[in-house]
Design a protein that fits this description.
The protein is mostly helical. The longest helix is centred in the N-terminal third of the chain and has 20 residues. About 7% of the residues have low confidence.
Length: 176
C-alpha cells in the first residue's frame, strides 16, 4: 500500500507524455496548405513572376517550415534573380532538413557555380554521385553547369580582385 501513490504518479506522468507524442505530426506530413502555396508559386515562377512566387513561397514556409520543397523553390527563385548567395542559403536550409537531398545539393552546386565557387560545386557533385551510385539527373545537370563555368561577370570581377605575384606589379604598371 505504501507504493500506490508513487505508482499513480508514475502512471499519470506516462499518460501525459504519451499523449503529447501522439498529437505531434511526423516530419513527412507537410501541411496541405503549404503544398498548395508551393504549387501556386511554381506556376508563378514558370510564368516569370518571381516576386509573386517569392511571396507565395515565404507564406508556404510560414505555414509549415518543414516544407523542404519550398526551400528548394526559394533557391531557384533567388538564382533567377541573380542572387546566388541567397540561393545557397535556401538550399542549405533544405539540406538541414534532409542532408542527402540530391535536388538541393545540385541546386546549391549550381548557385556556387553562379557565384564562382567551383571547388565547392565540385564537392557537391562528388557528394551527389556518392548518393546516386549511378548517373542521375541532378549529377548530370550539375556536371553540365560546372563544365559551362561561372558567368563572365563573375570571372571579370574575380580577375579584377586578384593581386599579381610579387615582381609582376612593376611589369603591369605603365612606365613614365
Amino acid at each position: 500500500m505504501r507504493f500506490s501513490p508513487t505508482a499513480i504518479a508514475l502512471a499519470l506522468s506516462l499518460a501525459a507524455v504519451s499523449s503529447v507524442g501522439q498529437s505531434q505530426k511526423p516530419d513527412d506530413q507537410i501541411n496541405p496548405r503549404s503544398i498548395e502555396l508551393l504549387q501556386q508559386a511554381e506556376t508563378a515562377r514558370r510564368a516569370g513572376n518571381l516576386a509573386n512566387a517569392e511571396d507565395l513561397l515565404e507564406t508556404a514556409l510560414a505555414v509549415d517550415p518543414r516544407n523542404r520543397a519550398a526551400f528548394i523553390a526559394m533557391g531557384k527563385v533567388a538564382q533567377a534573380q541573380q542572387l546566388p548567395g541567397k540561393a545557397i542559403r535556401f538550399y542549405r536550409e533544405a539540406l538541414a532538413l534532409e542532408p542527402n537531398d540530391t535536388a538541393a545539393l545540385a541546386g546549391q552546386g549550381e548557385a556556387m557555380v553562379q557565384r564562382g565557387a567551383m571547388t565547392r560545386a565540385q564537392a557537391n557533385l562528388a557528394r551527389i554521385r556518392g548518393i546516386c551510385k549511378t548517373e542521375c539527373a541532378p549529377a548530370t545537370t550539375l556536371a553540365a553547369a560546372i563544365a559551362k563555368g561561372p558567368p563572365a561577370a563573375v570571372m571579370t570581377a574575380q580577375a579584377a580582385t586578384t593581386v599579381p605575384p610579387k615582381g609582376e606589379e612593376e611589369k603591369a604598371a605603365p612606365q613614365p
